[in-house]
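Q: Two folds, back to back.
A: First:
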Amino acid sequence: MAELRKAALEVHRRAGADRRWDRRFTRAALVRETLATAADAPGGALYALVEAAVGDLSEAAASMPGPTRAAIARLREALEAATPQT
């Protein structure tokens, strides 16, 4: 969960530094707020919030600047690593 939180914070920081973030895609503001909430969320809520953010980011990741795309990829990887195996 620590890596998941770290990756979520990285994407949130990039969103906050990007002046055009809220205009980049339809759910950009929602993703930014979701990731802000994830910063202090307990484990299960953190996972659910990041899962929702990653789903919303899937439509726009390809159009992001390179460092942001890389941060989103790390967030996806951290989510996959945190996913319970069945």
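A: Second:
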Amino acid sequence: MRPLSRRAVLAGGAAMAALSGCTAGEPDPVVSKAPDPEHLLLRELIADKERTVGLYSALVAGGGEKLAPFLARHEEHLAALRERLPRESAPSPSSPAPSPTPSPPKVTLNRLRDLERKAAALRPRQLGKASPPLSQLIASIGACEALHALALPRSL
């Protein structure tokens, strides 16, 4: 075997330096893993509850004190769902504020009743994406929503 020439050694070293220089300043590529289905479900449930709390809050603030117990239950559901969201996925204080959404149509008792019925009907389909403890919470929330649909007063 012939010894390598000085020129070959220098060329090989330059090639190695060039190759290592291409990635030396760049971070390793981030391999994104698929989002956890339960995490996505929790975010969906939380967003849904936030909308529901907003609708109830609007009616309570407008003189619908009879709805305060319904609002309180939805706030409890929201708190229980938020507790299950992993800490690292909770929005950080420095997160930009969400863009303003158009004002919702007028909130009525019929609209709330319909919202409660639809939410309760959706819950059984969400159980398959959840762990047993979250499934139990979702089932309880669905039962409460079904009861709300029946128990909402006819008038304020």
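Q: And?
A: The mean pLDDT is 81.
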